[in-house]
Amino acid sequence: MGSPVLLSLSSFVHLDRNSSTPIFVQLTQQIINGIQRGFLIVGSKMPGTRQVSSALDLHRKTVIAAYDELQAQGWIDIVPNKGTFVLQQNQRKPLSLPVQTPISSAQYPAKTGFEVHSSNILDNPFEENTSTYFFSDGTTDIRLTQVKNLSLQYSASMNRKGSLKRMSQYQEDGNIFFKEQLSNFLNLSRGLHISKQNLLITRSSEMSLYLIAKVLLQLNDKVVVAELSNFAVNMTLLQAGAQLDTIPLDSEGICVASLKDKLEKGPIRMLYITPHHHYPTTVTLSAQRRLELLQLANHYGFIIVEDDYDYDFHYEKSAVLPLASADLNGMVIYTGTFGQSLAPAFRTGFVVAPPNLIQEMNKYLSIIDRQGDVIMQQALGEMIDEGEIHRNLKKSLKVYKERRDTMCGILRNILPDEVAVDPPSGGLALWLELPQNKSLFTLKKECQRQDLFIPRHILYQNKQLCAMRLGFGHMDNEEMEKSLYILKSVLQGI
Fold this sequence. Notes:
By secondary structure, the protein is α/β, with parallel strands linked by helices. The chain folds into three domains: 4-86, Winged helix-like DNA-binding domain superfamily/Winged helix DNA-binding domain (Arc Repressor Mutant, subunit A), CATH 1.10.10; 133-138 and 395-493, Aspartate Aminotransferase, domain 1, CATH 3.90.1150; 146-386, Type I PLP-dependent aspartate aminotransferase-like (Major domain) (Aspartate Aminotransferase, domain 2, 3-Layer(aba) Sandwich), CATH 3.40.640.10. Helices cover 41% and strands 14% of the residues. It contains 16 helices and 18 strands. It has helices at 4-12, 23-36, 49-56, 60-72, 147-159, 163-168, 176-190, 205-216, 231-239, 256-265, 287-300, 355-368, 374-385, 388-414, 440-449, 477-491; strands at residues 45-46, 76-79, 83-86, 133-134, 199-202, 222-226, 243-247, 249-250, 253-254, 270-273, 303-307, 332-338, 348-352, 420-421, 429-433, 452-453, 459-461, 466-471. The strands form five sheets. A seven-stranded mixed β-sheet has the order 5-13-12-11-10-6-7, with helices on both faces. A hairpin with a 4-residue loop joins strand 17 (459-461) and strand 18. The longest helix has 27 residues, at 388-414. The protein is elongated and about 95 Å long.
């Protein structure tokens, strides 16, 4: 094995005999990789097939097949009675066969060879959880979901007549049947007066807000949010180029008087609100302020984006209807998530707005998600039509209401002097106010040592506030009790 090329081959060719990729394909790909990386010099003579088969312990026919493939793809030239040579790029023949994805014989580049703009606005704030117990900002319990029933519903939808056609064709307007069913569902449950033309179906609430910002916001447009608000929403708005301004909160929700003061000083493009249960404090915007807000929007011409992220979860006899139900002038964009009581994979986002805005947003949606999941939408539409969504919600609401009451009861029993808690009328989280002298950073750190994970995005602390948004939906009674007793022991020790 004295040939330099043969020595080079044996140094970078590493074949995996257990791989499903044929050996001759692996050899072809790695020789191509060697040529691209300069391990095999252009114009150099390749060793014969017998030499290569002996050096790499391969059958000669395997090497011949690899050489034939390399010649067909234009990487080498086999000259009778002279030998096999590595071709220069301008000598290579047009590819006669599709190029296989190269198997790297060296470490993949650690970073790009070109400049990439990095956005610190969109840095992921979520942390990995390795603890047995954990708090959330208000998520559902997947264990309450009838996953088997959902899977059967999806499978049945796929197998129905016409499913193959729906899967093979792009439907830029989404599944029409689902849009009709969802518009009827929203009209009945939320007092809206819409049709399928008023609906845009998205993959998630995050996608909905991204599209809203993309269509409606320009650089340096002023967007108003509450002083305490959803960090992920703020990230999306900032990335769209908006200038964020804040207004205070109280027991009746956002302070509309403060908003009016800002409007008198200069124009505002958009107001983002969660009036049903404000995120994170869970406060419901009062009826009087809702009316005042609509009047201000009509007078000053700013957009209201109403995010009704947890409308499905209300525990009183009747829920407060969204602002969109009373909007007569097209000033409110209503967005939410359908299927919150289902498994995450079965949920979908939606936007309700006048048709002209829906049409513009659909143009952007067709770029980033042209097909959508038409089969899932069909299954969800059938679940509405058959009443399955209503039955699922009714069952889950009973459980979540009990969990809300249980968590409030435990907190009042074990931490009567440390916390103030007011049971929300709906949603899956409590707003927990803690003593001002407590460090939430220390609380998080010490709880994790005791196997309780507290994500940093549920913690809120400044000079006037020490609080946390404490989800109860994802925990059963045993998990809740253990988690809260860990919180108690740490809180009283710091």
